[in-house]
Design goal:
This protein is mainly α and 291 residues long. It has 13 helices and 2 strands; from the N terminus they run H-H-H-H-H-H-H-H-H-H-H-E-E-H-H. The protein has one domain. The radius of gyration is 19 Å and the shape is globular. It binds zinc ion (ZN) (2 copies). The site of one zinc ion has 7 residues, from helix 3 and helix 5.
Length: 291
């Protein structure tokens, strides 16, 4: 904890407070109901902020699976912070620890350690955020040395609060309830990568962890559910890949499609994707059986 100033501690603790508040605020929709417009607002906020989390926080900021101009990283980080995903330093710190120690003791949110079974599921689905593990052991130097990203990190809660105010301005209490429900669904959607993707699904690739390819999580998270591929090839900008009958098969990966759009409009470049030779070399032998 000495790593953090009192102000940073307060700033970070606002994050889980707002997520808990969003869970409670979601109950507003039981009173107001959801009109077609409010439902559209909810879905729009979900998709845009999920894409910011997956394409910017995860595949760009953390894994550098493609390159992009600094403003893309900054704007994307503001949108990801508006998802209630905390700031870029906090996010990257935890995610790097996850890859470094996947499903072992120092993994921040494994469903196998320090708890197992249904308690392990609860822990990986968000319980870890309410423990002392919430504070990363160290913050990434590259993010901390970028003045803009550091400000976004310490003021991560402002974009989320501003989005709540915008929602209220647009449609009153009904849209505020839709905003809270969107936050809650988004939070749990992202957490399923930590939980379900290490418990249920296929493992076409050899890794030293329990990561899985899970189509349901891929649907919820716009492609992040192809998590076994991701642990086998963390720097790949494309996650939707598997092996069937000895052949490389490409799966629907909306986040990769979005990165391709960024590439098309010259806001992304140097997309990293493993060669088919590398993919086949890493595939488990049973994937070479005829289908
Ligand atoms: Zn994982
Ligand atoms: Zn990752």
């Amino acid at each position: 904890m000495r790593l953090y100033s009192p102000l940073t501690i307060v700033s970070y603790l606002i994050g889980p407070t707002l997520i808990i508040f969003s869970h409670i605020g979601s109950l507003l929709v039981l009173i107001t109901g959801l009109s077609r417009g409010a439902l559209l607002w909810l879905v729009l906020l979900y998709v845009i902020r999920m894409l910011a989390t997956t394409s910017i926080y995860h595949r760009l900021l953390t894994h550098k699976s493609y390159q992009a101009p600094a403003p893309v990283l900054w704007v994307g980080s503001i949108l990801a912070a508006a998802a209630g995903q905390m700031g870029p330093s906090w996010w990257k710190a935890h995610h790097m620890a996850h890859h470094q120690y996947a499903d072992r003791n120092l993994d921040t949110h494994s469903p196998y350690t320090p708890l197992q079974g249904i308690r392990g599921f609860y822990w990986s689905q968000g319980g870890w955020l309410l423990s002392s593990r919430f504070f990363p052991a160290k913050l990434p130097i590259d993010v901390e040395s970028d003045g803009v990203l550091k400000v976004i990190d310490r003021l991560h809660f402002l974009p989320l609060v501003a989005l709540g105010a915008i929602s209220y301005y647009i449609g009153g209490v009904e849209y505020l309830g839709a905003f809270f429900l969107s936050n809650t669904l988004l939070f749990h959607g992202v957490q399923t990568v930590n939980s379900l993707c290490h418990i249920v699904g296929k493992q076409p690739f050899i890794t030293d962890d329990y990561s899985r390819n899970n189509w349901f999580v891929a649907f919820l998270t716009l492609g992040e559910g192809w998590h076994n591929l991701h642990h086998a090839f963390p720097s790949s900008s494309r996650h939707g890949i598997t092996i069937r009958g000895g052949q490389v098969v490409y799966l629907l990966d909306p986040t990769f499609c979005f990165i391709k759009v960024l590439d098309f409009v010259t806001l992304a470049s140097k997309l990293r994707v493993p060669s088919e030779t590398a993919l086949l070399a890493r595939a488990k032998k049973e994937n070479f059986q005829p289908q």
